[in-house]
Design goal:
about 45% helix, alpha/beta, tRNA processing, metal ion binding, about 350 residues, six-stranded mixed sheet, five-stranded mixed sheet, transferase, 2 domains, EC 2.3.1.234, 13 strands, Nucleotidyltransferase, domain 5
Length: about 350
């Protein structure tokens, strides 16, 4: 009788922003992936201290859910992965503290994961993309990435704010009948409004080589919005549509340029903004024109979640890369290209 090789089970803790998620991965299979979101009132962002308080209140409940949903006990876990950074300081510390405690209580090795690498590895797992050019777009990050010589190299990025931050901040200032809700996210609600937009309002288009800038567009549209809406030159839906079309065009442009440079025939979109169907549609058109393939995931895996940290942790664990307790700190600044990708050729 052939004995099956022992399977590796990793639990992952994610809490770098307003999502707290704990996921369990067993050799590429997602066993559980519960998540909670800290949602603030319309017109408000989320403060680090308040977000950390939210995470502290629910993290043990989410941990219990993850284990029960997977049908596992602590003894079945091989390693404990957590988000080392980048992200907001207070929420990162909260989650790292619980992960460290759990690892010591259960006698398991720790795996400090780069949040951005977590998104990439989850995207690769779910979509089966081979060696894609990656567009990583979220509330805190905007990067075009490609793998080369044991690093995820950054070919282009935002030089100021992230694209998700641009969309979220616009959602907070634009007044329709009432302010745009943060539930489930301001970016999602802008996407729904944009579908009803019919008039394109010209906005600044800022691509600088391989990099993009969103702060000027945001300042321009924030100032123009009140004048244009009060004088009935356009609707709020038109502005949402115009903002999306402009910023997504910029992202498609730099992604295509990175593909040409790398000779790539695959694009993988990851990060919270990657759920946006209009962005996927625009990227799909570009890929079709180049004879390339587009890969994307839905909100289960695009949006911050524990399973993506578990998957990156699984790759680290299998390649012998673990984090010593004394090295299990967090950092708000942790670039994608700082990580040695020991699990890829």
């Amino acid at each position: 009788m052939c004995l099956q090789a022992a399977m590796t089970v990793i639990i992952g803790f994610e809490g770098s922003a307003n999502k707290i998620g704990i996921g369990i991965i067993r050799d590429g299979e997602v066993l559980s992936n519960p998540r909670r979101t800290y949602i603030t009132p319309p017109g408000q962002g989320f403060m680090p201290s308040d977000t950390a308080r939210h995470h502290r209140a629910v993290i043990l409940t989410v941990l219990k859910e993850a284990l029960e949903e997977a049908g596992l006990k602590p003894a079945d876990i091989d390693g404990v992965a957590y988000t080392k950074g980048p992200g907001m300081g207070a929420p990162l510390v909260t989650v790292a503290l619980v992960a460290r405690t759990v690892a010591q209580l259960w006698g398991k090795p720790l795996l400090g994961v780069n949040h951005c690498v977590g998104h990439i590895e989850m995207g690769r797992l779910i979509t089966k993309a081979n060696n894609p050019t990656v567009l990583y777009v979220s509330g805190g990050n905007t990067q075009v990435i490609a793998y080369s010589e044991r690093r995820y190299r950054i070919f282009g990025e935002t030089i100021d704010i992230a694209v998700g931050n641009c969309l979220d901040r616009f959602a907070r200032v634009i007044k329709v009948k009432s302010k745009i809700s943060n539930d489930p996210s301001p970016g999602y609600n802008i996407e729904q409004m944009a579908k009803k937009g019919t008039q394109y309002v010209e906005l600044p288009y800022t691509v600088k080589g391989m990099d993009v800038s969103f702060s000027g567009i945001l300042s321009y549209i924030e100032e123009a919005a009140h004048k244009m809406l009060s004088s009935d030159q356009c609707t709020a839906e038109d502005l949402c549509f115009s903002l999306q079309e402009t910023v997504f065009s910029m992202l498609v442009e730099i992604t295509e340029r990175a593909m040409a440079h790398c000779g790539s025939q695959e694009v993988l979109i990851v990060g919270g903004v990657g759920c946006n169907l209009r962005l996927q549609e625009m990227m799909g058109v570009m890929c079709k024109e180049r004879g390339a393939k587009l890969f994307a995931t839905d909100e289960r895996f695009c949006i911050d979640n524990g399973a993506m940290i578990a998957q990156a942790g699984w790759e680290m664990f299998r390649s012998g890369q673990v984090t010593k307790l004394e090295d299990s700190w967090i950092t708000q600044r942790y670039r994608t290209d700082e990580v040695e990708v020991t699990w890829r050729d």
